[in-house]
Amino acid sequence: MNKVKKGKLFIISAPSGAGKSSLINEILKRGKGSGSLIELSVSATTRLPRPNDEEGKDYFFISDDKFKDLSSEAAFLESATVHGNSYGTLKNYVDSKLDAGVNLILDIDVQGFEQISKKNIQNTSIFIIPPSIDELKSRLVNRNEDSHDVIEARLKNAITELAGANNYDFKVLNDNFDEAADELYNLIVNRQTQNHEAKHILQILEDLLSN
Ligand code: 5GP
């Protein structure tokens, strides 16, 4: 992994409900429109597919045994248990995409980011911050996917994830979707921040953590 790659690696994390998936989809759409080669890495997971999930597009859905086998073969660049399911980034998949010049986004959690940080792998890391805990809660409730208990567990997990945000290269506040998408796209395509409100974002992060 130390040789020079043609594509760049981006790590994007956020607590669930922060709007990460919608933002990433918007970035992929803009990338296609402008001819930039940006793709989302497809991870392996043991979680069951949701109704709209597509094998090989959203995830490679595999059994617990298969996951253990891949783990013991060191096939994962990083792996983690998130909300009770195993997830892992496939090393060969990432290598072949980067070698092909693809700018690859890893949508992974804080544990995965920490593992990659410890390895000598060049990347740009971005953490998406929700505007408030109330907003996070209402997004989780409104998407109508999870039971009350699951939402409470996700909120608890959100606080733990937010505590890791300061270790990321960039923080993007998602209180206005278009502005957040502009910032994220600019970071990925131009590797520049337009963020003139860094202090404001840090204050929001501090407020979220003191709740
Ligand atoms: P979901 O099951 O809702 O698609 O994803 C749940 C969480 O797992 C998200 O926070 C997502 O970032 C994280 N995740 C997805 N794939 C991976 C992976 O390969 N590695 C790690 N560490 N986290 C992942």
Walk me through the structure.
The protein is of the alpha/beta class. Helix content is 44%, strand content 20%. It has eight helices and nine strands. The strands form two sheets. It has a five-stranded parallel β-sheet with strand order 2-7-1-8-9, with helices on both faces. A four-stranded mixed β-sheet has the order 4-3-6-5. Helix 1 crosses helix 7. The longest helix has 15 residues. The chain binds guanosine-5'-monophosphate. The site of guanosine-5'-monophosphate has 14 residues, from strand 5, strand 6 and helix 4.
Query: What string gives the helices and strands in order?
Result: EHEEEHEEHEHEHHEHH
Question: What characterizes the major β-sheet?
Answer: 5 strands, parallel
What is the terminal-to-terminal distance? Answer: 40 Å
Helical amount among residues, as a percent range? 40-55%
Spans where pLDDT lies below 50 across 5 or more residues: none
Which ions and ligands are bound to the chains? guanosine-5'-monophosphate
The side-by-side strand order for the widest beta sheet comes to 2-7-1-8-9
Q: Bin the strand percentage.
A: 15-25%
- Using only CA atoms, what is the Rg? 17 Å
Tell me the structural class.
alpha/beta
Shape: globular
Strand runs, count: 9
User: How many H/I helices?
Assistant: 8
Mean pLDDT reading: 90
Give me the secondary-structure topology:
Layout: E1 9-13, H1 20-34, E2 38-40, E3 43-45, E4 59-61, H2 64-72, E5 76-82, E6 85-90, H3 91-99, E7 103-107, H4 110-118, E8 124-129, H5 133-142, H6 148-162, E9 170-173, H7 177-189, H8 198-209
Parallel strand pairs: 1-7, 1-8, 2-7, 3-4, 8-9
Antiparallel strand pairs: 3-6, 5-6
The chain binds guanosine-5'-monophosphate (5GP).
Residues 16, 43, 47, 78, 80, 82, 87-89, 107-109, 111-112 line the site of guanosine-5'-monophosphate.
